[in-house]
Amino acid sequence: MTITYYPFDGADVYQAQWTKMFSPVQSGVVAGIGDGLEVYGDSSGMQVKVRSGRAFIKGHTMDSDATSTLAIAAADPSNARWDLVVVKLDWVNKTISLVVKTGTPAGSPALPSVTESSTVWEIPLAKVIVDAGATTIAAAKVIDRRIACNLFKIPFLIGDGVTVITAGVKAVIPVRFPLILHGWQIEEVTATSGSITFDIWVDYYGNTPAVADTIISSGKPLISSAVRGVSVLSLGSGGISTWSAGMTGVLRPEQYDNGLLLSVNADATPATVKKVCLTLLASRR
Q: β-strand 179-188 against 228-230: which pairing, if any?
């Protein structure tokens, strides 16, 4: 029987050991750093751009401190194709890079697969739709495929499934560490289509949060004549830009004795649903 252990001072740690040590940790984009490696098109030609950010892959880290431009191969004249933008870890060459994997033109295109091998490991950032004969990549042709490695969920189960949810405060939780809010999703638990809107209020622990303490200037969590709703995931350092209330998207409870209180309030707009799960997506600051 052989027992190995690492890392310790005075003993070398090799990349294979480092990878093994962090293999249980999710690889992905690190939410809350830079602009979250967001990929976008701006109709400036056959190219996409990747904003700043950080990726964590199998115990290795890549930092990008500025926007990168990646070329997109010429479009097929007859068929569309789907390309995939990835972060590529290459253990052989000891590099981590931003790469476009070019798809195959077809009447029904397929997205290239990410590589997960003993020599190369990739994580997806975005799908790029390259239309037949395209000469530029517009914003609508880039679809987010990022996976965040450090997001956690704050779920709220609201309603009893019997009576319609009424207006008012539905949940209050303490916030004792700095966090960034990156998105939300709502699911109607009984799969009944309906409508409801929520507001998020934050105040220091000694007060009871009220409507004046909203942290949302626009983009409230809601479902509208539907079973579910979801926000655009904003993985940058400021989180959801429209959720600020002077805190630039970051809740800082260490500035207050006993931290902060976060309240979920159902707006007065008439609700037609009886039970929902509202989940806030957040990261530690």
A: antiparallel
Lowest mean pLDDT among 106-110, 124-128, 170-174, 237-241: 237-241
What is the spatial distance between Cα 235 and Cα 146, in angstroms, rounded to a whole number? Answer: 9
- Tens digits of per-residue pLDDT, 129-140? 999 999 999 999
Rounded CA separation 197/266 (Å): 6
* Amino acid found at 212: A
224-242 confidence digits (pLDDT tens): 999 999 998 899 988 887 7
Q: Does residue 253 have a cis peptide bond before it, meaning omega lies within 30 degrees of 0?
A: no
Domains and CATH numbers, the chain: 15-144 (2.60.520), 152-284 (2.60.120)
Q: For residue 156, which amino acid is it? A: F
Query: Looking at residue 77, what DSSP letter applies?
Result: S
Query: With 0-12 CB in 10 A as exposed, 13-18 as middle and 19+ as buried, what is 244?
Result: middle
Strand order in the sheet with 60-64: 28-29, 53-57, 60-64
Contact 84, 102 (CB under 8 A): no
For 157, what's the count of Cα atoms within 13 Å in the CB-facing half-sphere?
4
pLDDT of res. 53: 97
Q: DSSP secondary structure string, 154-215? A: EEEEE--SSSPPPSEEEEEEEE-S-EEEEEEEEEETT---EEEEEEEEEEETTS---GGGB-
Q: How far apart are CA 198 and CA 186, in angstroms?
A: 10
CA 106/CA 78 separation, integer angstroms = 8
And the tokens for 40? 């976008």
